[in-house]
Amino acid sequence: MLRRPAAMAFAPGAYVFPGGSVDAADGDTGIGWSGPDPAEFGERLGCSAAAARALVCAAIRETFEESGVLLAGRPDGSPVAPGPSLEDDRAALAAGSVTFAELLARRGLVLLAGLLIPWARWITPEAEPRRFDARFFAAALPPGQRAVGHHAEADRTVWLRPAAAVEAARAGSMVMLPPTATTLHEFAALGGAAAILGSRRTIAPVMPRLAAEDGEAWLFIPDEADYPL
């Protein structure tokens, strides 16, 4: 998990998963792909095959930029070997001196879409001035790789068991947004990586709502989300 720097405009100080926005280039069909067809992802994510392809690409690109973990590999499905040159490519990508498509093509890599498990979809309340429609994925850390936070995106990087992270949020020692806390709670309930990665979930969008009661603003989260905090 990454802790967002205090200077960030959105969710400063919150612990989040690596991720970010979909760029126009994430939909480039020239980027190699290995794994389930984008249409299959689209059925599970509730979007078109083209949108699903862009979402998976964005998830892989942002995870690499923010944590150094690259969910890409050879066309035969074998993962990429870590090394100093991979960190150099990450720095170049973050600096904008190379595109993700160029990086992958130069190394002969493709997106290993089969490593990603579609997990959830959260939409910010209609009354929020900043709106997000976010999809979440689960994935195992590829062999030999390690997560290292990017200083521009996080001021702290931590590995925690999901249940411990939820307890820290309940105790007030970690700040989390509802999608993060709920996802961790779901991971903890399943008990291990094998069960998480073996899940085939039906993903329905979750959209909390804002309401005023007695002059105070409250965030109401649907019961089916099983929000733990």
Put the structure in a nutshell.
With 229 residues, the protein is an alpha+beta fold. Helix content is 33%, strand content 16%. The strands form four sheets. The protein has a three-stranded antiparallel β-sheet with strand order 2-1-8, with no helix packed on it.
Descriptive report:
It is a single chain. By secondary structure, the chain is of the alpha+beta class. The protein has a domain at 2-159: Nucleoside Triphosphate Pyrophosphohydrolase (Alpha-Beta Complex), CATH 3.90.79. Helices cover 33% and strands 16% of the residues. The protein is built from seven helices and ten strands. Strands 2-1-8 form a three-stranded antiparallel β-sheet, with no helix packed on it. Strands 3-5-4 form a three-stranded mixed β-sheet, with helices on one face. The chain has a two-stranded antiparallel sheet with strand order 6-7. A hairpin with a 2-residue loop joins strand 9 (209-213) and strand 10. Helix 1 packs across helix 2. The longest helix has 19 residues, at 49-67. It is globular. The model has no long low-confidence stretch (mean pLDDT 91).
Topology at a glance:
Layout: E1 2-3, E2 15-16, E3 33-34, H1 38-45, H2 49-67, E4 72-73, H3 84-95, H4 100-107, E5 110-112, E6 117-123, E7 133-138, E8 156-157, H5 162-171, H6 178-190, H7 193-197, E9 209-213, E10 216-220
Parallel strand pairs: 3-5
Antiparallel strand pairs: 1-2, 1-8, 4-5, 6-7, 9-10
